[in-house]
Amino acid sequence: MKKLGLLLLFVFGFGIVNAQSSLPSVSLKTIDGKTVNTAKLSEGKTIVISLWATWCVPCKNELDAISDVYDEWVDETGVELYAVSVDDSRTVKRVKPLVNGKGWDYEVLLDTNHDLKRALGVSTVPVVLIVRDNKILYRHSGYTEGAEDDLFEEIKKYAN
Question: Which residue ranges in the chain fall short of pLDDT 70?
Answer without folding.
Answer: 1-20, 160
